[in-house]
Amino acid sequence: MTAIQVRGLRKSYQDHVAVAGIDLEVAQGEVFALLGPNGAGKTTTVEILEGHRGRDAGEVAVLGQDPATGTSAWRARLGIVLQTATDAAQLSVLETVRHFAKYYPRPRNVDDVIDLCGLTEKANARVKSLSGGQRRRLDVALGIIGTPDLVFLDEPTTGFDPEARRQFWGLIEKLAADGTTVLLTTHYLDEAEALANRVAVLARGRIVAEGTPGTLGGRATAEAIVRWTDHNGPHEVRTATPTALVREMSGNGELNGLTVTRPSLEDVYLNLVGDEK
Ligand code: ATP
Question: Are 111 and 142 in contact (CB under 8 A)?
């Protein structure tokens, strides 16, 4: 089953083309990351999928419905975590999550969600006393309280410390293990690599590459750089066949400081996005 299906999606703001005809398919249970530089059209695309923004052209089905005419029953199956923080500052964390749970026909257990989001110690703290990263976790808690089938996460870990990011990744992994589909936008390529089954790179409103994080842009088959050191000093060789090279060079014994490196997701991404500028 397909969770999200998009064909020929277009959206302009006055004469500025923000989304220039994109096709996208996300399977149920998949974690899909949309990558791209500032202004590439990620938020516009996600807002159209959420039903928060109209489109100029194209076919869109999200959980089988057109978001432009989505019913409230359809909306209850979505979990939306926006870039903006929650605005119920006077309530406690527990009160806020409890309050939001009432909007949904099949809410998760409130204490479980608070625990899942690492906010148990802050359950009775007022929202206004939370740090930026803790507020973001609360946003996520509110996004998943309704047991959504599909969660939209727009730059979810911006402002998180490294430990909080890792905890958050664990949370997404748990949601995915439960069969929740996740559409994520992020500027952190390590995050996309850790979480996403598939990624798409958006630049100037078009998808310029799509694939698994490991194979995007021919990454898996790109030339490797082999480095080692011997009595002549350091060596660095680019090769499409690193195994053969290492086998040949190591005939004389151990290679000191041997490393074999392929382009990182960030290298590939910067190449793809750079080509578009
Ligand atoms: P970021 O990574 O900075 O969040 P993004 O990929 O989410 O960027 P969008 O917010 O979708 O990008 O914006 C795409 C383009 O459309 C940008 O050039 C932006 O200036 C423009 N744009 C977005 N919203 C509006 C609007 N309401 N009115 C006019 N132009 C807009």
Answer: no
